[in-house]
Amino acid sequence: MATSKNRVQCFVCNKEKNTYNCKGCSNEFCFPHLKEHRQRIETQLEEIINDHDQFQQTIIQQKQNPDISPLIEQINQWEKNSIHQIQQTAEECREKVMKSTQKNNNDMEKKFIELSQKLKEIREENEFNEIDLNHLQLKLTQVTEEFLQPSNISIRQDLHKFIKKTSINILSFEQIQTKKKKFQQFAITVAGGNGLGYQLNQFYNPNGIFIDNDKSIYIADLSNNRIVKWKSNSNQGQIIAGRNGQGNQNNQLRFPTDIIFDKENNSLVISDLGNSRVIRCFDQNQTNQQIIISNIPCWGLAIDKNGFMYASDV
Q1: What value does the mean pLDDT of the chain take?
Q2: For residue 244, which phi and psi values (nearest 5 degrees)?
Q3: Are the CB atoms for 191 and 230 separated by under 8 Å?
C-alpha cells in the first residue's frame, strides 16, 4: 500500500480523507476501510489455501486408490448396464429360438408322418415305379435338410454399435417365397427351361452347380442321376457323369446333389447322396470314378484356395 498526501474520497465511505492506494485494485481507502479491505483480501487468500489443501488431498487419495476416479465409476456403471443388456438380449434370443425350433419340429413331424403314410400305402399297394421312388427320395431329402438346416431362422448382428446387439430374425414361409420371387423377376434362364424331363435340354430337380473359366455350367441333375455340362449359349447339355442310369456301380450315380472342381487334380468332385459317398471323376475319362469318402450322406461340397475340401454330413 502507498500513502497519498492529497485528500481524496475513500472508495468505501466516499468521504474526503487521507487515503491509501491499493495497487491490487487501484482504489483509494481511508485507514479504517483499508484495514477492512486488507482483511477481506486475507480471507480470500485463506479460502484459496483451503481449496488448495483439499485438492492436494484429492490427488493423494487418487494415487492411493486409482479405482475411485469418477470416470472409472462411469465405466463401471456402463459395464453393468452393458452386461445386463447383453444378458437380457441373449435370454430373449434363446426364447425366440426355442419357440421357433419347437414350431419347426412340429411341422417336420407332420411332414414326416405324411411321408411315412405315403411309404406305407405304396408298400401295401405294391404299385410304384422309378418316378415314384425318385419323388419319395427327394421328399425325404428335402425334409431332412429342412430339419437339420432350417432356412427360416438365423442370427443377425448389428456391427455398427460398440456392443453388438444380437437379435433373431425369423422369416415366415410367405416372406421367403417373396424374396425368391423378387430375385426371379430379374433372372434369365441359362440352362434348361424346357420343362421337367430327362432329355439333354431338360432337368429333373437340379441342385448344386459350378461355373468353369469357359463359362460352362456343371449341374447336379438330382432326379436324373447325372451330372450335366452346359456350355455357354448352348441349347442342350452334355452328360459327363451318370450316363449309365441310377445305381451304386463305379460308373453310376444315385441322387447327386452338388459338384465342385478340383484344380489341383483337374477333376470333378461329386456328392453322391443316394450312395452315401463323395466321388471324383475326370471330364476326359468319365468311366474312371474314384470314391474319396464313403459312408457319408453328403449334401453340399466346397473347396478352398489351398485345395482343402469340405463336405456336409446330413
Answers
A1: 82
A2: -105, 20
A3: yes
* One-letter amino acid of 264: E
When pLDDT is averaged across residues 190-202 and rounded to a whole number, the result is 86
Torsion sign across C-alpha atoms 274, 132, 240, 208:
negative
Sheet strand arrangement including 267-272: 256-262, 267-272, 277-282, 285-294
Q: Under a CB-based contact definition with an 8 Å cutoff, are residues 262 and 307 in contact?
A: yes
Where does the pLDDT of residue 256 fall: very low under 50, low under 70, confident under 90, or very high at 90 and above?
very high
Residue 261, pLDDT above cutoff 70? yes
302 is written with which cell numbers?
A: 466346397
Give the pLDDT mean for 3-28: 82
Q: Which of 89, 101, 98, 88 is nearest to 158 (CA)?
A: 89
- Mean pLDDT computed over 120-139: 81
Closest CA to 236 of 221, 251, 223, 252: 221
Q: Per-residue pLDDT tens for 210-245? A: 998 888 999 999 888 899 999 988 899 999 888 888
Distance between CA atoms of residues 28 and 36, nearest Å: 13
The answer to whether 6 touches 16, Cβ cutoff 8 Å, is no
- Quick check: 208 and 261 in contact, CB under 8 A? no
CA nearest 219: which of 198, 239, 199?
239
Counts of helices then strands in the chain (DSSP H, E)? 4, 15
Topology at the third CATH level for domain 206-313: Neuraminidase (2.120.10)
Q: Which three cell numbers stand for residue 37?
A: 479491505
Residues of the chain within CATH 2.120.10.30 domain(s) are 206-313
pLDDT at 2: 45
